[in-house]
Amino acid sequence: MITQIGIASGEILTLMEERKRPVSISEIESHLENEKELAYMSIGWLVREGHVHFVEKGSERYLCSC
Asked: What mean pLDDT comes out for the span 39-46?
């Protein structure tokens, strides 16, 4: 499971780099083929390690690496 979280975290960072903007949680879930648990574990790891943080726009949360 730890390997899957690491791979998914890398995919999230790549997605954010490609889009060059904050990415919504729903975009991340879609990108990871709707594997919600894996998406949330990977997001948690990235936040804990300081690679990303949350920003809110309206009622939706986004991840930002800025």
From this structure: 95
